[in-house]
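In response to a reviewer's request, we include the raw inputs and outputs for one of the modeled complexes. The three entities were modeled together in a single run.
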Amino acid sequence: MSSTISARSSSSADVADAGSARRAGKRDVWLVFWIVPAFYTAFGVIFFALARVMPPPRPDVTTDQMVHFFHAHTLTIKIGFGVLVLIVGGAGIANGIVAYHMKRMTVGSVMAYGYLGAMSVGALPGCLLVAFCFLTAVYRPDRDPHLLALLYDLGLLSYVGSLGCFSTAYFAFAVAILYDKNEIFPKWLAYVSIWQIVTEIMAMPVFISKAGPFAWNGSIAFWLGVVVFGFWLSCVIVFLMKATERQPIDEPPLD
Amino acid sequence: MQILAEAEDLPKTANIKTQLISLWTAPAFGIVLMIAFLAFPGFFPPMSPDMTADQVAKFYSDHTALIRFSMITFNLCGIMLLPFFMVIVVQMKRMATQSHIFAYSYLTAAVSGATLFALADIFYLVAAFRPDRSPELVMLLNDMAWMIFIAPVGAFVAMNLLLGAAIYFDDGPTPVFPRWVGHYAIMTALAMAPAAAAAVFTTGPLAWNGAVSFWLRNGAFALFVVVMFFVLRNVLHRQAVDEGVAT
Amino acid sequence: MANAEQTEAEFGAAAASSVSGAERQRIVHTPGDGHMWVMVLGDLIIFGAYFVIFMVYRAMNPQEFLTSQEHLNINIGVLNTLALLASSWFVARSVQAARAGDHARALRLTYLGGLCGVVFILIKAYEWSTKIAAGYTISSNEFFMFYYMLTGVHLFHVSLGLLILGITVRELRNPRRRRMFMVEAGATYWHMVDLLWIVIFALLYVMR
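The model returned the following structure tokens for the whole complex.
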């Protein structure tokens, strides 16, 4: 028996040595990890190129201009948001792997549940509502213009203006990172999450302003938010990869 | 709670501390949400479903500033109550004599309930966004806002029934919660359940402005948060003492 | 394997002996911790962007911005600035006291710094209420939207700063901790909050 044990331990030592050239970590976690950048790349293509919500069309337009927007982009909206509706499970998966690594921190599970819960809340008002408002708007080409205007406003205000769900998630994320002694994520990522909360605060006026930096397409309420979010998301993906890499292959399953 | 010196850097201490933070977000943001609730011009008295489209449109154009202040606050701060409910999830998982099934079902129910709440304030804000929108459409948005705010009680009813069941099943020597909390949770569920009828009734106590659907529902919910804050504080203290984290 | 260990030990001994006593005295250390500096620098960049955008909109609409600015009470602005400057001074001195090992004094100074922060918030709340009562709300015009949003998000930072000062107090009160980098990190953040206010004050209240 001792010979089997030593044989096994020497082979795992080989794996550990090879791990400096090849990644460690668990293979099921790796599978889930790679879904995250794949999903967000698709998300970027959909939201920037196809669905035309990034950047969003202007709030300070007439009803006719809103109608024109929907008519001009009917095809790409259908393709883009149609695909989103199929692949949006990727957002849930991304939230899941973050919550998974948060549970590996030394802080207990309550913040992981808070992150998971708050991000899940955000999926509807902050992402899918605009998808279905726009899909409905382009579903019948001859809909009354005033109904199209309502869908335009409802979609874009919910998309840019869903603030609290994400703020709560960033809060839970930041607190967990700051208390964590396993250094699953670096401490400065907690501060980047605080910047995210700042950008949510700066988006509050989208419900008031129709033009200028605080409108839903404004330089402060929208663009700066996108830049900070892009940076945050990139950091999260990089550190998810590192956390997955550094996870010991024989770590027992979480509670 | 006095954290013991030897326990300061232990994971189980951080577990208590993060739960305490999640617990205290409830009064901190509860006060803010209460201010927003009091500020909304359509709650005292609650707007009637009988209002005509023109009356609804006039309401939104007369009170735009306060409507926006109150609903933007709900938007930014409402989901900050979620961590509080996640403490209940963690405590349910500590119950020794059961699987964790109630806890996980509670978690998902809380998320679905919070989603509906996050959605409701958006409709009020869209209704207030363009004063020149047709009154019929403003009334449509207002109807959806009220219905989505008041009627979705299913998630919370389920949560409380699950909590009640978990407490009743937690019949070992060291239950996490006192037994009366189980009764209280079920009572809260029963008090809030009738508000589902606000999706259907346009007059009377079951309409969204009625005594049952508005006042009883919201009062029971607010009271639940207050009561559970104190209950959870005690539960966390006992957990800390039991685990050797605090005195 | 034994040879490798030997070489390593020799190398280490050689390296250690090459650092002279005087050099070891002068080891420079960046105050606070690197993570807080990421926070501070990133926050300054983000606010810098807000300030640039403010200037752009001001340049597009100088008359409206100038006349709206007249409705701000510069005296209250000055009081706010003095409150934060005083608080920064207390916090800086508390760091010095902590470095000297006088933790009781450091604690008192931190409390004083926090008190000034609370005074700042109260003054700001008073100012906002007078402006709103006079009819200058967030939707009055572009200038006032900037005013409320910039001072508002700054107020969020002040509140966060009070939380951080509270953590500093916890650190100083615990004889088993009192880690300098924690005290310094808290002070770094607080000074950033002060710096941001000075720029906001200059842009919104003073600049003509």
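As requested, we also summarize the result in words. The radius of gyration of chain B is 20 Å. Chain B has a mean pLDDT of 95.
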